Each structure stands twice: as C-alpha cells, then as structure tokens.
Backbone:
C-alpha cells in the first residue's frame, strides 16, 4: 500500500513562484507530499491567490511586533490543518525560536545563494544578487536548508549552481537562480519527507 502523502504548510510573503513549483510537483499523485495550507504574513500577495487557484486553504496571519505571538497564531493554523512540515518560500520574517523548536527538523527554507555565502540577516531578495555581483564571484545558485534558530545557518539539504555572467544584472542573475529554485525545492522536499535526508544525521555530522 502507498504511504500517505506528507502534509506541507507553505509560508509566503510575496509572489509565490516557489509555492507554485511545489503545487505543480504535487499534482503528480506519485509525489510524496501535498500542500494542505498556505500562510502569508501580509494580505494581498500573489502567493495567496496561487493557493486559492489550486484549491488550497490560504490564510493571512498578520505579523506581530512580538514574534512569539505570531508563532503561536501560526502554529494554531498549522495544527488545524494537521501540517507536518513547514516550507518557507519567500517568507520574509524570522520565526520565533520557540516555534522553530516546536517544529524542530521539520522546517525548510530556500535561499537564493550558495550558503553559507551571501546569507544571514538582511540578505534577501535582490540584495543577495547585488552582493554576489559586487563580490565578483563566478558562480552562484540556491540552497534548501533546515531552519534552525540561527538565520540561514541550518543544515543544507540540497544546492544547485548557476554561472554568474559578466553582463549580468541582479535581475538576470535572479531569473537564472529562480529557475533552479523551482526545480530544487520540490526535489529537496521529496528527499526530506521520504527520509532520504534526515535533519538529525546532518546536524550530527556538523558537530
Ligand atoms: C526566492 O528567491 C527565494 O529563494 C527567497 O525569496 C524568493 C521568493 O520568491 N527566499 P517567490 O515568492 O517564491 O517567487
């Protein structure tokens, strides 16, 4: 008998192209996960619309000054939908450590660089690609990693590389990286939910 599919919550703050890639992958009945709920910290973003179009329940949990309170509200929504995994997909807030602990080893994030390079607080969106261009490196890419209390520093699940071309702007580089993100994220989710990659093993081998 086939195993039940893993239940994913996807968190967004913006246009949600990575959410779309995950929704598209899960249209295949053999894909081992499905999106059961989408949450945004802000109203009106296109990610919410993508969820609605796919028939997935979508909520706004407004960001609070107190991240702990946000974490509690968020966990309520996830529990109501029996989400087992949390995938951050262009989610721009830093989750409260208590929330991270509660979902320990079950939160993933995608970042548009080859971590540990060009990561950390304040490194998101176009800023990442600007920094890559300014540094003059020849290669960039994206990283899917487990989320821990330290920003962008959790164990790496998968990475994809792209060349940085001399004529690149932040925009052209972002587009090249995004193409890889949309391939990498569903694949990384597959590896994690099937147990092919395990948080505890990765975390231990880093000690
Ligand atoms: C992506 O570049 C992702 O790596 C970063 O935020 C961007 C989100 O894009 N964390 P989208 O909302 O999935 O289109």
Residues:
């Amino acid at each position: 008998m086939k195993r039940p599919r893993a239940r994913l919550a996807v968190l967004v703050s913006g246009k949600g192209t990575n959410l779309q890639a995950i929704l598209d992958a899960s249209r295949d009945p053999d894909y081992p996960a499905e999106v059961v709920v989408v949450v945004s910290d802000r109203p009106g973003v296109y990610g919410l619309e993508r969820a609605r179009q796919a028939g997935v329940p979508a909520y706004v949990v407004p960001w609070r000054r107190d991240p702990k309170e946000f974490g509690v509200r968020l966990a309520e929504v996830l529990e109501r939908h029996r989400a087992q995994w949390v995938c951050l997909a262009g989610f721009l807030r830093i989750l409260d450590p208590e929330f991270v602990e509660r979902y320990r080893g079950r939160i993933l994030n995608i970042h548009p660089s080859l971590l540990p390079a060009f990561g950390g607080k304040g490194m998101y969106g176009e800023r990442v690609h600007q920094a890559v261009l300014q540094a003059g490196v020849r290669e960039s890419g994206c990283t899917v990693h487990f989320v821990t209390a330290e920003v962008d520093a959790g164990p790496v699940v998968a990475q994809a590389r792209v060349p940085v071309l001399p004529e690149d702007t932040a925009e052209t580089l972002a587009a090249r990286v995004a193409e890889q993100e949309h391939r990498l994220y569903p694949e990384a989710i597959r590896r994690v939910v099937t147990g092919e990659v395990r948080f505890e093993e990765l975390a231990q081998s880093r000690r």
Observations:
- The longest helix spans residues 170-193.
